[in-house]
Design brief:
alpha+beta, binds guanosine-5'-monophosphate, globular, 141 residues, HINT, 18% strand, binds zinc ion, HIT family, subunit A
Length: 141
């Protein structure tokens, strides 16, 4: 546990939360400033800052919980869909440095945007540049 981490304190029960799910490794609770009814945060209980810091077995547990919770959250608020996303690192807008997935229920005509609206200036990449990026990723994987 990291003492000055809000989410570690929530997991420990030192800060109250509207808990919706808990198992040995994963914890989920309602966002205190919801972007939609049912906006839920799903976190590993152990403190890790970004996705790359999460051990693989915990990452699997996290995804399993997301997989099970997402339809349940949608049903609970009668949503039509959801965005499921991580702000993964400060430059991507992560404010709480304990990795967390957002489940944000979406409704027909809610005025929101798809995940494509997140990025800033979009690049104009040539086919060669795309090939180079793809092979850099494939080779390092
Ligand atoms: P981030 O920008 O880091 O991806 O999102 C952090 C989220 O945590 C925000 O949506 C914010 O509303 C939520 N949050 C911050 N502090 C608390 C808290 O004390 N309790 C709960 N339930 N949510 C919090
Ligand atoms: Zn933490």
């Amino acid at each position: 546990m990291v003492n000055d981490c809000i989410f570690c304190q929530i997991v420990a029960g030192d800060i109250p939360s509207k808990t919706v799910y808990e198992d040995d490794t994963v914890f989920a609770f309602l966002d205190v400033n919801p972007l939609a009814p049912g906006h839920t945060l799903v976190i590993p209980k152990d403190h890790h800052e970004t996705l790359a810091d999460v051990p693989e077995d915990t990452a699997s547990d996290l995804f399993s919980a997301l997989h099970r919770l997402t339809p349940v959250v949608e049903d609970a608020v009668d949503a039509d869909a959801s965005n499921v996303a991580f702000n993964n690192g400060e430059a991507a807008g992560q404010e709480v440095s304990h990795v967390h997935a957002h489940i944000i229920p979406r409704f027909d005509g809610d005025g929101g945007n798809p995940i494509h609206a997140i990025a800033g200036n979009t690049p104009d990449l040539s086919d060669e540049e795309l090939d180079e990026i793809a092979s850099d990723i494939a080779d390092a994987r």
